[in-house]
Amino acid sequence: MVENRVILHAYWLSSCSWRVRAMLHAKSIPFEERPVDIVKTGKQLTEEYRAINPAQKVPALEIDGVTLVESTAIIQYIEDTRPEPKLMPDTALQRARMREICETIVSGIQPLQNFGLKKHLGTEEKFLSFTKYWTERGLQTLNDLLAKTSGAYCIGDQITLADICLVPQIYNGVSRHKLDLKTYPIVSKVYENLLKEELYQATHPKATKEKLKINL
């Protein structure tokens, strides 16, 4: 018998975790979130967690009797197995544009914001300077891409996987680096539109922190 319970192993402030949290909410999939403190206690580095995710990162999702890791693989699996409501555009070109945006975020911005880089860059100042540079470069790329595709959201007026990826990363850039999104007007417009959606209000890190009663 396949286990019906869905368990998300995540860190409340992790952008990758927020992607999966938002995806589960968008598909109305009930789930339990189990906190993994990757900053203070380093729970992800324990052997117990390694048995869940060999990469010792967040998120990991237990669903349909299996455990999946890597947020983009997880959200694509959810889309493939729970196609309604649809979070993929209708045409091949629109889907390619969506993937351009997703890849810019998950390959060109997020890894270069990762807290794990801090110990390799020596000081907090060097880490923040490095991540700010690459975030700004990525945002300019996004702004140019969205000029071709956006309506209210990344791809016209339909929420897609691109939006699932975009909001957490922009939030990271704004909250961590105090970036002024006026420099990226199209990114800013899409981001502000999406933040008004119940999907992002319900899964926002602040709402998650309060729900899980996480004390810093």
From TrEMBL:
Pathway per the UniProt entry: Amino-acid degradation; L-phenylalanine degradation; acetoacetate and fumarate from L-phenylalanine: step 5/6
Requisite cofactors: glutathione
Superkingdom field: Eukaryota
Domain GST C-terminal: residue ranges: 91-212
Catalytic activity of the protein: 4-maleylacetoacetate = 4-fumarylacetoacetate
Pfam families: GST_C_3 (PF14497), GST_N_2 (PF13409)
Gene Ontology molecular-function annotations: glutathione transferase activity; maleylacetoacetate isomerase activity
InterPro entries: Glutathione-S-Trfase_C-like, Glutathione-S-Trfase_C_sf, Glutathione_S-Trfase, Glutathione_S-Trfase_N, GST_C, GST_Zeta, Thioredoxin-like_sf
GO terms of biological process kind: glutathione metabolic process; L-phenylalanine catabolic process; L-tyrosine catabolic process
GO CC terms of this entry: cytoplasm
Record keywords: Phenylalanine catabolism, Tyrosine catabolism
Domain GST N-terminal: residue ranges: 4-86
EC number: 5.2.1.2
Record-stated family: Belongs to the GST superfamily. Zeta family.
NCBIfam families to which the protein is assigned, alphabetical: maiA (TIGR01262)
Protein name: maleylacetoacetate isomerase
Lineage: Eukaryota, Metazoa, Ecdysozoa, Arthropoda, Hexapoda
